[in-house]
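Exercise 7.
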Amino acid sequence: MPLNNQPSAQPGTFARDAAESATSSLASAEVRQSANRHGLRILAILSLLMAFASISTDLYLPALPAMAQALHAGHGAVELTISGYLIGFSLGQLLWGPLGDRYGRRLPIAIGLVLFILGSAGCALSTDAPMLIGWRAVQAVGACASVVLARAMVRDLYAGHRAAQMMSTLMTVVMAIAPLLGPSAGGLILQVASWRAIFWTLAGVGLATLAALRALPETLPPPRRNHAPLGRAFATYAQLLRNRRVLGYAGAGGFFYGGMYAYIAGTPFAYITYHHVSPQLYGVLFAAGIVGIMLTNQINARLVRKMGGDRLMRIGTLGAAIAGGLLAIDSWTGWGGLPGLVIPLFLFVSATGFIVANSIAGALGSFPERAGSVSALIGAIQYGTGILGSALVGVLADGTPWPMGAVIAAMSLGSVLCAMLLVPSCVAPATGARAAE
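Solution. The predicted structure, written as tokens, is:
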């Protein structure tokens, strides 16, 4: 029985890959048994690897004003360190995916961590803004290896509903706990040291993770690797994008990420400047959204075996689209005032737990033998639409919350259309669960 009731793949190589691995994970039986015995340790290391995307930026956000002053740069120039990082992170994933499928997971992760350490040290030693932006790009290319291949390792070790459960647990760390703790930890470092100490701390985290990597087993044995030339491996992306199911998962998660980044870019102005909310209350409202993400991730982990990941993803995208529509109405008319923004935004953000983990797990399950490339493609699309969503909020800015509401509504509509129209309905969720077992 195909994994998660997958339909037949595209003719050719992908069809063979899907048939060979539809009902099993890719790691050897010995590695899977080791992962089960040391589940908490494996989970902790994978969580750390996937958290690199968040901690690399969240930790230094409180230091942006101090960095601008120390480097004699404008705030706009220093803020480009975030844009440069996102661009490097988005494009870098496309490099590491095929490398992970060809050489295994651990070696590319280790090389990426070395790049991350070098990039962090370069940031700490930077003497001007352009130098800092350049080193941030190096840091991003290194960091994304950990994120891309950690997702692929989840698919190597687990299949079906179990893969979605693990992804939900990891997403709780990546999208909830890390963003909640990162700025606070960065602020504490600034109280006792300069902004440069934050980047030295990141270099230390990279070294610690590199050491911890020794305890993580290689999940892609040589017989399962893709030994095709790398040029052909990179052409895999075009083939993946021609697969309707992968495109559906990528679109559902990607459009939603665009809305999430519009939320991140737009809420400080909408809350603090337009509705005169204090920075402290803004922090509380932002934290409430993180709590919503944590709750829905845990609910998803409990329900995915019974209901199936595809069905939960559709429910999440539909809920996000409804919330986005209400948000657009309020931001255009002013109906509901501040609560009219807070409530739909909370509902929209909380849908993360049903959309992100299930879209990633579904895409990875479509072509397990190309998990690295699929993970890279999904990540690049997510961060690419994230950059687009945040940029649109800035370009369309008119002094009201309307641009943010319009972008979120449009992105959530795209997400639900991809989930409903491109991902075929599962016949019976339990079948996918039995296949995973």
